[in-house]
Amino acid sequence: ILMVDEKGKNMKCLTFFLMLPETVKNRSKKSSKKGNSSSGSNSKLPPVCYEIITLKTKKKKKMAADIFPRKKPANTNATAVQQYHQQNLNNNNTIPAPNWQGLYPTIRERNAVMFNNDLMADVHFVVGPPGGTQRLPGHKYVLAVGSSVFHAMFYGELAEDKDEIRIPDVEPAAFLAMLKYIYCDEIDLAADTVLATLYAAKKYIVPHLARACVNFLETSLSAKNACVLLSQSCLFEEPDLTQRCWEVIDAQAELALKSEGFCDIDFQTLESILRRETLNAKEIVVFEAALNWAEVECQRQELLATIENKRKVLGKALYLIRIPAMALDDFANGAAQSGILTLNETNDIFLWYTAAKKPELQFVSKPRKGLVPQRCHRFQSCAYRSNQWRYRGRCDSIQFAVDKRVFIAGFGLYGSSCGSAEYSAKIELKRQGVILGQNLSKYFSDGSSNTFPVWFEYPVQIEPDTFYTASVILDGNELSYFGQEGMTEVQCGKVTVQFQCSSDSTNGTGVQGGQIPELIFYA
C-alpha cells in the first residue's frame, strides 16, 4: 500500500501480502504435486494486488482534555471550605450546601465536617454535672471506629438503642476535645482542661489521646502543679508521669510545698509526700505545709479550722513530719508554739534535743537524706597570674545546654589566689533573656584553687536541648584563680552538658577559660 497525500508526495510505503482464499487453495495443490524440489521457489509468493490510497491531510488529533477543557474552580469553593472548618470549631450546626462532600478531597476532611454537627447525627450526649450540662451530637459509626467503649455501647451484645446518653462525670470541654480527636484526628489540649481530657480518654479507652495528655502534662510540669499532678497520675495509673512529678517535688521541694496546689491533694498523696526520704526541704517547711493543708481540709469537710480539727484531719500523718530533725530554733519558734502538739509531745521533743537520755518519740527523728548534688566541671586545669583574674563589677558568663532535664542548684566559683578573701557574688540564670533564677550572696575562699559553691534560693528547672546563660558578677579586691583548657562537652553521670561562649560575658570568661568552672545540679 503506497500512502500519498493530496499533492502526490509519499507519506508511507507499506507492503502487505494479501492471499485470497481461492488463490491460496489452488497454489497449495500445485505445490504438493511438484514435491520438495520446488519448495524453495514456492516459499516466496508474489502479491495478489496493489492499491494506491490517497489520504487527506488530517489536523492534529485532539485529546479529551482539549475537547472538554477543565473549568477553573470558583473562589466560592475555597471560601466555603474555610466556612465549614469554622463551623466545626464553633458548633453552629449550619446545614452544609448541596454537594458539600465535593469540597473535601480526603475522608478525614469529610469526617471532620461531622464533628459537633447535628447533620446525620444518630445519638446525642448530655455531658457535664447537673446545672452545667451541654448537649452534643454524635455519629455512632464514627465513634465506634474511634473507641472500643463506644463500639460496645452501640454495637455490642448489650448495646442499648438510646437516642440520648447522659455523661455526668465528664466535663463538656474535655468531651469535645476527645470528639475532635476521634472525628478530625486533631489533638487540641489546654492547661485548664487537660486533666479532664485525660480522664475522658481513659474512660473511653482512647490511648493515643491519653498519651498526648500525659506528654502535655510532662512538658508543663513545674513545682506549682507537681503535687496535684502527682495525685492525678496515681489515680490515672500513669507511672511515667508519677516519676516525673517526684523528680520535680524532690528537687524543688520547698517551692512545691508552698504552692497552692499542695493544699488540693488528697490524704493519701499527703502521706506519700511526708514519707518521702529524698525530699529536699527543711523540715520546718514541711511542717508549715502540712498545717496549711489541714486548714484547707477542714474547709472541705465543713469544719472550723481550729487546732483540734487540724490535728484531727491530719491524723497519723502528723507523725510523718520529722519534727526532731528540725533545727532547734525552728522547733522552738515554730512547731513548739503552733499549738498542734500536745504539752507532753513538746516537752519530750525539747528533752530529745538537750538530754543525754533521750525519750522515745512517735515522730521520726532521723533527718531526710535529700538529694546529693552533682557537679559538672568544665576546665581541665586552673592557674593564676599577677594581673588576672580581676573583678570590677564586670560580668562573667557562659552558655550551656543539657540532654536531660536537670535542676540547677548553683555554681561553683574560683576564689582568691592571694590568700583567704571574701567575695560578693550575684549569680543569675537566664533563658532567651528571661531571668529564671538569681541570688546575691557572699562566699569565703581559703586561698586554694578549689571551687566554692554559691546557691540559688531554689533550684531552677532546666529543659533539655535548649541553651541557658549562666552569669556571675563578683566583687572582691583580690585576684582569683581562673580555669584553662575548657571543654565544649562534658559527660557528668548520665547527663551530657555542652558549653558555648556568651555575648553577656564582659570580663573574659569563655569556653576555653575564665570563671564559673562548675554547674551544681540535681538530676
UniProtKB/TrEMBL annotation:
UniProtKB keywords: Cytoplasm
Keyword Cytoplasm found: yes
Keyword flag Glycosyltransferase: no
GO cellular component: cytosol
Domain BTB stretches: 121-191
Main subcellular location: cytoplasm
The protein's name in its UniProt record: BTBD3 protein
Organism: Regulus satrapa
Lineage: Eukaryota, Metazoa, Chordata, Craniata, Vertebrata
